[in-house]
Amino acid sequence: MRRLLLLVAAILAAAGWYFFGRVQGAESWLGYAEADYVKVAPTLEGQLVSLSVARGDSVASGAPLFAQDPVNDRAAVAQARAELAGALEKLADLKAAGRDMEILQAKAEIADMQAAYDRVARDLARNAAIVGSGAATRQTVDQLP
C-alpha cells in the first residue's frame, strides 16, 4: 500500500510539473494565410536591365520591382516634345496677324453656303406646293437636297 501511495504521489508530482512547472514555449498555430496575388507587368515594352525582387519576396507598396532599358522611354519623350513643339508652332501661326484674309474668306464661304441652303429650301417649298397641280413631279421634289 505504501508503494502504491508513493507511486500515486510520484505520478501526481510528475503531472503537476508537466502542467504547471515547465516553461511554456512560444505559441504556434496551424492554418492558412490569405493573400492577394498580383500579376505585375511593365506598361511599355522594353528590355529588363535589373530585377529587384525574387520569387516569394515581400514587396512594400511603391518599391521598384525592376528597371527597364530607357531607350523606348527617351524616344517616347522626344516624340511627345516634337508633337508639342508642332502644336505650339501651329498655335502661333493661327494667332498671327496675317489671318484676316483667311477669316474673311471663311466668312464668305459660310455666306455662300447659307445662300445655297436658302435657295434649295425655297425650291423645295415651291415644288412641294405645286406637285399636286402637275407642274412639278414628285421626283423633282425628292431629288432636291
Structure characterization notes:
- The chain is mainly alpha-helical and 145 residues long.
- The chain is built from four helices and two strands; from the N terminus they run αββααα.
- The chain has a two-stranded antiparallel ribbon.
- It has helices at 2-21, 71-95, 100-130, 138-143; strands at residues 48-51, 66-68.
- Helices cover 57% and strands 5% of the residues.
- The radius of gyration is 45 Å and the shape is elongated.
Q: Tell me how many strands there are.
A: 2
- Largest sheet data: 2 strands, antiparallel
Please, how many helices?
4
Give the strand content: under 5%
Structural class assignment? mainly alpha
Taking Cα atoms only, what radius of gyration do you get, to the nearest Å? 45 Å
- Element-level helix/strand string: HEEHHH
Oligomer: single chain
Q: What is the helical fraction, as a range of percent?
A: 55-70%
Query: Low-confidence runs (pLDDT<50, min 5 residues)?
Result: none
Q: Which shape, going by the Cα principal axes?
A: elongated
The average pLDDT score comes to: 81
Brief overview, please?
With 145 residues, the protein is mostly helical.
